[in-house]
Specification:
Chain lengths: 127, 308, 622
């Protein structure tokens, strides 16, 4: 990759923001599996592989599947966040592969959050 | 061991003698003290000691003089020096006179015990140590070790990274490996050893095929890691820092794995297991070696019935 | 409190902030001032209400009107219409204020409501292995600003004015530390990051390094510019393999893209960064010891002065900052010192990350504004005690800290208030303990740690901690003597006064605070051979209260030494001679019928426990 100038930095920011904005990027959903040390130890890898398997099976290419670090609530790991276009993100807790499959079908494909596994909706506070 | 090893501590400061005595006596060694070289010689004339720990800088009869005298008149006695700020030359001289080891002053109880243990081993026929010194590693391992050493040769402050890589390659840091590193990096063996014994990450004992790391952090303590550790020790019949006879498992106690949310935690090789109970820990360990479960025997069965 | 005519609540959830919440806030403030409405209108920020797709969202109370998709440009019109003309600004009205959902919003769950993320601003949002995602969230913008628009003095001034204090333990002002090092002239200087995180019970730094490694790197670039360093190291524990991996990837990517190395972003500034793996020694958290360790030696502290700002790593001027401190830097540079001071207190500004663990329901990593009461952290964010057990103490600051009792839970979390209790904020480990924890045992646990980790260089620490540990061990084994308590206190104070480095100077804190707040437990151990928590094996008798026993057989089956007898419908009994005091029955019983009595107790248990219960009801909190 070429060395960046300050201008490039701004361009990356803009491009990346639109890539990741579901609307502008043409995506329908984004799923983040939280994989810090705690999450992995609690079984986040199983959740991730169940998810990727379902996405592949469904043959969908407009879903972003990604990972991130610790989500902070270690007691309820593994955690994952599902964001459907035009809806607030929903965070699920105490997951396993099976629950993830169910969430995939109900929430990601069907658009109905799976309330029994959900912890919270919305974003965390930053200011 | 036939009789408890007998040790003489020589130092011109009473506090050093007292603190060494305190540490060593608690481990069952027979310990006496001498305030200076003259008193030491008189004592050694009268009695025989397995080991002598001596300071170098002392008024009247200094450490080097004492060592020369012991080598001449009591050659079977093992000698370890304890010293505050050694110059490279005096250490070198002492090494040439044939001391076993070197304890930097001030020392931690762990360092002192560690050195004592090995010094005792050495005096018990010198054989064990010599075997280790000549222990051969597979050529590939040797070559890799050489490569790492030469890679770091010119970098300042490279001793710790090299030791880390060496431990990755060999699994532990026996004297032979330390010697190789000392030579390769041109750092005195005493300094290499002092670094190895200072950091808890380094081990001089071979580890088992599976290394069980048990978290001894506060959160794990509060949530009952002691019971889990007790069960593992009892079942495998080894303590922290030891390896089972069949070299299958070793147990290591770590300060905090930083996975407090899952407390109590243990890690086997690279895999982290959280929310441990004695029973769960035994189940997991038996995945690595099914015979463990039968060793856990009655107690475990009983707990199974309980069903949480 | 003043009464305002209108209360405006602006959403400060990550989604809304990314959509421009902060610009909207500034515009609102300005407009309110312009119209002279400061006395009438109160503006505050709040946790996410879950209307993220409509953000930024503003709620107006008591009108119960909600505006959506705001921009700074809309604000003058909106203020004019709603607050001057008292008409709704139809264009931006949100018709359905909140999505109909039974899933609670962040603002409804205390765990999220009380937190404000600054250090953890990217927590759970970005893929730490992709630098583009960090850049998308304003990453490296602060570095760019610092390298192009700011002088060394500018940077130092902002950091000083922000009131940021080192988050590693001592709370030394970060800006001052940088200023000292910047004023020393030297061809070589070092910018160092302490990721050693040695406190048992703390994992803030691990999480930050794993979840957002670039935020640490960016903080280091800015610090390097401020002090004039061109080389740096991140010292990380080898026990944190994932953190090491992600940091290394981050450094590699940043170097490849010209954000590290020579001529960063074409500005002509050079900064080379390397990772140095620690080898596990608690004392290496002390800055001079850590520097010795990077030099490849035994990590022993040395006396100061000279301070590391003058003579540090390889005798060159060096600055060592903690991971969390560095992660705070970029937003301070971007948003300014005043922004940083909007949270926290005068002397303890901003936010602090805590690793909340132990006997609470919500174990996790939390970031809160300084000054929040301890009780809020434990009972709201932590959702109270696990299994409904009784709170006993909260331990702050690891082996250098202390145990704080129930009676002090309402104090605000600031450096000064916590120090006044005898504990310290430390790096942010917060371990909650319930009545199953023995406080003498806890003090012994920490002393065992420090005695073992003492590097041995100075006598008070090396010998003193060992003696404290021996006395504590005696007490927990039933060999305690009345005068032990005074000895612990005297010796503890001596060790604090005479030790060479922070490890020794703080090592007695766990003993002194437990003696101060839980003296009754020491007395009970020494005088009555009774560990009421049932932890010290030699000081307990487990006894089944026949009146409560349901004869379910659970304890009987669980007992590893077959010391319990009984049958269905016949209350069980423990044969003391066979009991090994393992607690298994105590933890198994679902009816709390197993009680803990003093060692070798022969009197009437009902009488003893009855008088205890009465005493407790009378005595109340400390």
């Amino acid at each position: 990759m070429a060395r960046l100038t300050i201008d490039d930095l701004r361009k990356i920011k803009e491009k990346q923001s639109s890539d990741f904005s579901l609307r502008k990027g043409g995506y329908s959903a984004k799923v983040t599996v939280h994989m810090g040390t705690c999450g992995i130890a609690a079984g986040a890898r199983d959740v991730m592989s169940a998810l990727t398997e379902e996405v592949t099976k469904a043959g969908m290419d407009n879903i972003i599947v990604t990972t991130s670090g610790c989500a902070g609530l270690c007691a309820r790991e593994p955690l994952a966040t599902v964001e459907i276009i035009n809806h607030p993100p929903v965070r699920y807790c105490d997951l396993n592969g099976e629950k993830m499959r169910e969430i995939f079908k109900e929430h990601i494909l069907g658009g109905n959050p799976v309330e029994k596994y959900a912890l919270v909706r919305g974003c965390e506070t930053t200011y | 061991m036939a009789a408890e090893p007998k040790i003489l501590i020589v130092d011109d400061e009473l506090v050093v003698i007292k603190s060494a005595e305190r540490v060593l006596k608690s481990e069952g060694y027979v310990v006496e003290g001498a305030l200076g070289g003259r008193e030491a010689i008189l004592k050694i004339e009268q009695d025989s000691y397995d080991l002598v720990f001596t300071d170098l800088k002392m008024p009247e009869v200094d450490g080097i003089t004492l060592i020369r005298w012991i080598k001449k008149s009591r050659p079977s006695t093992g000698i370890v020096i304890i010293t505050g700020y050694p110059s490279q030359d005096t250490i070198k001289e002492a090494l040439e006179l044939g001391i076993i080891d070197y304890v930097p002053k001030p020392f931690t109880p762990a360092v002192l015990l560690d050195v004592t243990e090995r010094a005792v081993e050495w005096t018990k026929g010198k054989k064990v140590e010599e075997e280790k010194m000549t222990e051969k590693f597979p050529p590939a391992m040797e070559a890799e070790l050489e490569r790492v050493i030469s890679e770091y040769r010119k970098k300042p402050g490279s001793l710790i990274p090299v030791l880390q890589r060496a431990q990755e390659i060999v699994g532990y840091l026996p004297p032979m490996v330390q010697k190789k590193i000392s030579k390769g990096l041109n750092i005195p063996i005493a300094e290499v050893h002092s670094v190895v014994s200072f950091y808890s990450f380094f081990t001089m004992n071979p580890r088992g095929d599976h290394n069980i790391r048990v978290c001894l952090g506060t959160a794990c303590y509060v949530r009952g890691i002691e019971g889990v550790l007790g069960k593992i020790k009892e079942t495998l019949k080894i303590d922290i820092g030891e390896t089972t006879e069949n070299r299958k498992f070793s147990i290591e106690g770590v300060r905090c794995l930083g996975a407090c949310g899952l407390a109590p935690v243990m890690v086997i090789d690279e895999e982290t297991y959280g929310a441990m109970t004695p029973r769960k820990a035994m189940e997991i360990i038996s995945h690595y070696d099914p015979s463990v479960m039968s060793a856990a025997a009655a107690g475990a069965e009983m707990m199974d019935e309980k069903g949480e | 409190m003043e009464k305002f005519r209108k209360n405006l609540v602006l959403c400060a959830g990550t989604g809304c902030v990314a959509g421009g919440s902060m610009k909207v806030r500034d515009a609102l403030r300005e407009e309110i001032k312009k119209k002279g409405l400061e006395k009438d209108i109160n503006l505050s920020l709040a946790a996410c209400s879950g209307s993220c797709s409509e953000g930024p969202v503003l709620s107006v109370y008591p009108d119960e009107v909600f505006y959506q998709k705001l921009t700074a440009e809309d604000i003058p019109k909106l203020v004019e219409e709603h607050f001057v003309n008292e008409r709704l600004y139809e264009k931006l009205i949100m018709r359905e204020p909140e999505e109909k959902s039974s899933i609670p919003a962040m603002k409804d769950i205390p765990f999220f409501r009380y937190q404000v993320l600054r250090v953890l601003r990217n927590k759970g949002l970005i893929d730490p292995e992709k630098i583009e995602e960090y850049i998308a969230r304003d990453g490296y913008q602060a570095a760019a600003k610092a390298l192009t628009e700011m002088t060394q003095e500018d940077i130092i001034k902002v950091v000083k004015d922000s009131g940021l204090r080192g988050r590693g333990g001592a709370g030394f002002p970060t800006g001052l530390k940088w200023e000292f090092a910047s004023k020393v002239s030297s061809d070589v200087k070092y910018m160092l990051c302490n990721g050693d995180e040695g406190d048992p019970g703390a994992f803030m730094d691990r999480s930050v390094m794993e979840a957002d490694p670039h935020s640490v790197i960016e903080g280091m670039i800015i610090g390097a510019k401020a002090i004039g360093a061109h080389n740096g190291y991140i010292y990380v524990r080898a026990e944190y393999p994932l953190a090491v991996k992600r940091l290394q990837m981050a450094i590699d990517m940043a170097t490849e893209m010209g954000l590290l190395g020579k001529d960063i972003l074409g500005t002509g500034f050079d900064f080379e960064l390397e990772i140095y793996l620690g080898a596990g020694a608690f004392v290496c958290g002390e800055e001079t010891a850590l520097m010795r360790s990077i030099e490849g030696k035994r990590g022993m502290p040395r006396p100061r002065p000279p301070f590391p700002a003058q003579k540090g790593l390889w005798d060159k001027p060096s600055v060592l900052n903690n991971v969390e401190t560095l992660a705070q830097i970029a937003p301070i540079i971007l948003n300014g010192a005043d922004w940083y001071r909007t949270l926290g207190t005068e002397k303890s500004a901003g936010t602090k990350v805590f690793a909340l663990t132990g006997a609470v329901n919500n174990v996790g990593l939390v970031e809160v504004p300084m000054g929040i009461p301890l009780r809020t952290i434990i009972y709201d964010i932590g959702a109270g005690m696990r299994k409904g057990r009784k709170f006993k103490a909260v331990q702050l600051g690891g082996p250098s800290g202390g145990c704080i009792p129930e009676g002090l839970l309402d104090i605000p979390v600031t450096y000064e208030d916590i120090v006044a209790t005898g504990a310290i904020i430390g790096s942010g480990g917060m371990v909650v303990m319930d009545d199953n924890t023995c406080m003498v045992g806890t003090a012994k646990f920490f002393l065992g740690f420090t005695a073992d980790e003492s590097c041995g260089k100075c006598v008070p620490c090396r010998v003193g901690t060992r003696i404290l540990l021996d006395i504590l061990t005696d007490i927990t084994e039933g060999k305690g003597r009345e005068e032990d308590m005074a000895t612990l206190e005297d010796l503890g104070r001596d060790i604090i006064a005479t030790s060479l480095c922070g490890l020794g100077q703080t090592a007695p804190n766990p003993v002194l605070t437990t003696l101060r707040y839980f003296r009754d437990e020491y007395e009970s151990h020494i005088r009555h051979k009774w560990c009421k928590a049932g932890v010290c094996r030699d000081l307990t008798t487990f006894w089944i209260d026949e009146k409560l026993c349901k004869a379910c057989g659970a304890c009987l089956r669980a007992c590893p030494s077959k010391a319990i007898v009984g049958e269905k419908k016949v209350p069980h009994k423990i044969i003391q001679e066979l009991c090994v005091h393992c607690r298994t029955c105590y933890e198994t019983c679902k009816f709390s019928s197993i009680k803990i009595l003093p060692a070798g107790f022969e009197g009437d248990p009902y009488e003893l426990l009855g008088s205890e219960a009465k005493g407790e009801a009378k005595g109340g909190n400390e």
